[in-house]
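dude i think i finally got it to work??
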Amino acid sequence: MHSEVVGSRSADQRDSTRESRNGGTPQLDAVSLAIIQQLQEDGRRPYAAIGKAVGLSEAAVRQRVQKLLDQGVMQIVAVTDPLTVGFRRQAMVGINVEGDVESIADALTAMSEVEYVVMAAGSFDILAEIVCEDDDHLLDVINKRIRALPGVRSTESFVYLKLKKQTYMWGTR
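look at this
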C-alpha cells in the first residue's frame, strides 16, 4: 500500500509540461490540458474542485497551475466587453512594412491601445487589433503613432461595427 501512495504522489508531481526537443515549446499532458479546460470554463473555479475533476490533490493542481502560468502557457485574466468600460472603437489594422517586420511588431506591442499583434504572411506583414475610446483616439493612434514608425509602408483599417463572437475556449480542443 505504501508504494501505491508513493507512486501516486510521484505521478502527481511529474513534470507535466516538459519542454519538447523541437524549440522549447512545453508539451502538455492530458491532466494539464484538463486543468486548462476547467479554468477556461470558469477562471475562478477552486483548485479543490479542479482537483476532484482531474484526479489530483488541491496542492498538485495549484503547483501545475503555477507552472503553466510561469511558462506562459496560459494567463488567468478578467475579460471585459470594451464597450462597457468606455472603449467605443475597435479596429484591426493591416500593416505593410519595409525592412525589419519584428522591430515594427515590437513597437506596436509597446502601445497600450494595441491588444493583439501578429506577424503574418499574405496581404499584410502585421495585423494589429486596436481598442480606443472613440474615432478621434483611433485616428491619433493610426495616423500619428503607427504610420509614424520608421519602416511602415502602408496601413489598412478594418473598423469593427459589431462583435459577434469572442471566445478563448480553443486552448484544449
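DSSP finds six helices and six strands in the chain.
im so relieved honestly
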